[in-house]
Amino acid sequence: MSGERLQIFVAMCIYMAVVIGIGLYYFRRAGASSDNFLIGGRSLGPWVTAMGAEASDMSGWLLMGLPGVAYWVGLSDAIWTAIGLLIGTYLNWLFVAKRLRGYSVIASDSITIPDFFSNRFKEKKKVIATIAALFILIFFTVYAASCFVTVGKLFSRLFATKYLYMMIAGALFVVFYTFIGGFLAESASDFMQGIVMIISLVVVLGAGISAAGGIPAVINNAKSIPGFLEFFGIAQPTLVDGVQQLETTGKPLFGAAGSYGFLTIISTLSWGLGYFGMPQVLLKFMAIKEPSQLKLSRRVATIWCAISLVAAVAIGIIGRVLYPDVLLTQSDSESIFVLMSMDFFMPIFAGIVMAGILAATISSSDSYLLIAASAFSKSIYHGIMKKDANDKQVLTMTRITLLVISVFAMIIAIDENSVIFKVVSFAWAGFGATFGPLMLFSLFWKRTTRTGAIAGMVSGGSMVFIWKLLIRPIGGLFDIYELLPAFIVSCIAIVVTSLLTEEPSSDIIEEFELAKAFKE
Known about the structure:
Layout: H1 3-25, H2 27-30, H3 34-39, H4 46-58, H5 65-73, H6 75-106, H7 113-120, H8 127-159, H9 163-211, H10 215-223, E1 233-234, E2 239-240, E3 243-244, E4 258-259, H11 262-269, H12 279-287, H13 294-322, H14 330-333, H15 336-344, H16 347-385, H17 391-412, H18 420-444, H19 450-471, H20 483-500, H21 506-516
Antiparallel strand pairs: 1-4, 2-3
Helix pairs in contact: 1-9, 1-16, 4-9, 4-12, 4-13, 4-16, 5-6, 5-13, 6-12, 6-13, 6-21, 7-8, 8-9, 8-16, 8-17, 8-18, 8-19, 9-13, 9-15, 9-16, 9-17, 15-16, 16-17, 18-19, 18-20, 19-20
């Protein structure tokens, strides 16, 4: 290992040591009860809630996936995605956060999303909880795999080491940290990691603008690529076997600009719908200490999100101007943040900046693993398999499940050519369509029935697979992001089925009205 890479390695090791220290600090409190381990005893402050929710939500795709999209095809696809996410972030905090915080307490003090849905409809047989837990296991395993891919790509590029070894090493670190610290450690470190992420993005953006000769120079150079800097067009790299071709002068080849029409924009904006069903964000709403503090949390989260998303998109565009012929596959394009960091800064500072990627990955994967493990242990193990399990047994099963999920995620992440953005988009659609409509109807429509809830989850989650694998490949009008049609199908299923089935019982209606008036 060269001296420069050694300095980067040392800087990142210091960062990881701090993260492990946080986990060890919370080890005793996390092990005191499953409530502490899974939701931190509802003790989060407004800043930790806000930063933790956004950091765990954005994951490594914010620093690698989103800049990679901007580098590869230009402004439109990346910026419309960012706009959709920003709108979704604000609306989720505005409408869902406070109602869910109160309703989760009223509904038998629910501490997981499957528990909340099950308690909301006063299930005796835990059908809703089981279905929700199974979907969480599926989609969060895929999500965790995307994080492991991010770690593998980062470390293999930094240290010129085989991807597989680096992916496994990074995954083991994340698993160890989550295993010992639980929700409190995850939330505390997410606060720190949210700060590291936004500083890293802003610093690299500033350095990139300077290196490119200023904003006017970036714009002029980017405009020379057909469709690259358009809101309603898209750049189309000329590919052979997935590799962008170069002119004899070394300049990358692009075809004529593609169209980015109204239907495509609506499809891309629909990323924002995913927020209503994201367990890692919803759980933070449930965990805040005082509901009155959610207003401050909303402002912090929205500002953080706006700055981070704009910076990530801009880094990808500037990266294409500075390094037009370096990253010639879509998978490689997701390393533009790493490349810029290594070129712009002294090694020790580059290590600190790139800890932002590690921060994003850790803050997301620990949330994914913890929520997936808790969904199984609380809803399936405790709810069905062993109803008389005590708190310690539930906690033990949570940790065992965490390890098993991690193994499956590592298997999925073995392919180093995986495109992080595509992996994340599928899991995002899965959660958004499975839980988003049901969350909104559960909180705001008292006529929603248990049968309607089941129909909404099953139809939404299934449609994600059907549209992605069978319908979208047809192309044309059907080539839209699977989240949008699946979300609509789920909404229709909830409304129609609820109206066709018996109205909710009086005690369910009473709890709904209590949640509506909840102030605490």
